Structures are given as C-alpha cells and as structure tokens.
Amino acid sequence: MWFFYLPRICNHCTYAACVGSCPVQAITKRRDGIVLINEDACRSQLQCVKACPYMKSIYNPAEGNSQKCIGCFPKIEEGLVPQCFENCLGKIRLHGWINEPEQADPNNPVDFLVHEMGVAKPLYPQLGLQPHVYYIPPINVPDEYLFQMFGPGVAEAKDAYQRARDGEGGDYRKMRGLLHLIGSTEYIIEQFEVNEDEAIGYDANGRTVAKVPMAEPRATRPNFDGQHNVYRLDVT
C-alpha cells in the first residue's frame, strides 16, 4: 500500500489553455511566464474554468468573475519567492527560472533539476500545455502509476533522487546540496554552488542569500550524567 501528497498550484503553462479559451481576452501571460486574469475585464463566461485541465481557474460567485493564482508577482518582482513557497513547512518548494534545454545552466537550480539531472518532471506533459511546475516523483510509488502522471523518465528520476539521498558523490552530491537549500531563504535562488562543507545560494545580483551545511553537526553526550546522577534517553 502507498500514498503521497501532490501539492497543486497554477502551472502558469507556456501554452495556457485558459488564455486561449477566454472569449474576451481577459487572461494574459507576462514575459516572465506568469499567467494573470484581469478580473475587471472578465465577463464570467467560464471558458477558462472549462479549459484548464488542472482545474486552477475557479469561478468566484461572490465576486462574479474567475480567479486564479497570481504567482505572487509583486513578490517575484522584488526577488522574493511566492508566499506558498515561503510558508511551506516541509521546505519542499523551490522557485526559479528555467531555460530551454540547449541553453541549460548547470548552476541554475531549476535547470539543474529539470535538464541536467532529469529528476523533476512536469505534471501531465501529454496535454501539450508545457506546465511550469515540476515534481520530483515519490520513490515509494510504482513506476506505472507515475508514468501516466509525469511521463517518461520517472524510473531514472527516482533512481537519481535515491542516489542523492544515499550520499553518492559528483552531481548527486551537488543535487543533495541543492535540496538542502530548498526553503532556507525567502529570496529566489538564481545560482548555487556546493563546496566541501556547504551549499550556497545566490540571488540575481550574485548576493549570497542562503548557506546550509552539507552535514548537520552532531554531538554525542554520555548516557549517564554523573553531575546530576541521571541517565539520558537522548544522547545525540
């Protein structure tokens, strides 16, 4: 038996179905890829609600228009991650920018995970919309099930993630360092590096915005504390 959680937000697709379906052209795609609904221009035709296979355009009857995730674009413009990324308790969300495969930058976090390591996959790529939210497939789920969600390469993605978890070197160690950086800062990490001791994230201006150790420091205490004449149950 298995199960997994799948956080779902607007995919801000390259070929967004909501944009093409709106009869009054109230939905636009910005240069940075964020898809927005002009709620003042919306005439509640609900075509975007019907068109989006991810069900992320939602009609609000109280407001009388369709609404969706705005990608927290005011924060993005300040170099900050969206609010759902910052608030994620599990520290599993990484925001960044992706290049075309032939222009992939191995020090760009998203390029590295998607293009270099092939470990992050889009949801339902067979729909042809080129979604821009990528998932690392869960390693406890059968490949056959994951294939219909994330397409080809899920077995290789799971293997790469497992190798990083198991402490292998090279690019797997670099990936492990990048995964440590996720959730470590409110700033968008646009470049990163991993050295002998740390993983370091940089913003668009090359400023260091995050540093995390590759291995957590560990201290071991004696099982018996003679000063207080007690035994410790937790010694690390």
Give me the secondary-structure topology.
Elements: H1 17-21, E1 27-29, E2 35-37, H2 47-51, E3 58-60, E4 65-67, H3 73-76, H4 83-86, H5 109-116, E5 121-122, E6 134-135, H6 143-150, H7 154-165, H8 171-181, E7 191-194, E8 198-202, E9 208-213, E10 224-225, E11 230-231
Antiparallel strand pairs: 1-2, 3-4, 5-6, 7-8, 8-9, 10-11
Q: Could you characterize the architecture of this molecule?
A:
The protein has 236 residues and is α+β, with helices and mostly antiparallel strands. The protein is built from 8 helices and 11 strands. It has a 3-stranded antiparallel beta sheet with strand order 7-8-9, covered by helices on one side. Strands 1-2 form a two-stranded antiparallel ribbon. A two-stranded antiparallel sheet has the order 3-4. The model has no long low-confidence stretch (mean pLDDT 95).
What brief labels describe this structure?
236 residues; alpha+beta; Alpha-Beta Plaits; 3-stranded antiparallel beta sheet; two-stranded antiparallel ribbon; 15% strand
In short:
With 236 residues, the chain is of the alpha+beta class. 24% of the residues lie in helices and 15% in strands. It has two domains: 55 residues, Alpha-Beta Plaits (2-Layer Sandwich), CATH 3.30.70; 115 residues, no CATH class.
**CA(first)-CA(last) distance:** 33 Å
Low-confidence stretches: none
Share of helical residues: 10-25%
- Number of alpha- plus pi-helical segments: 8
- Category by helix and strand content: alpha+beta
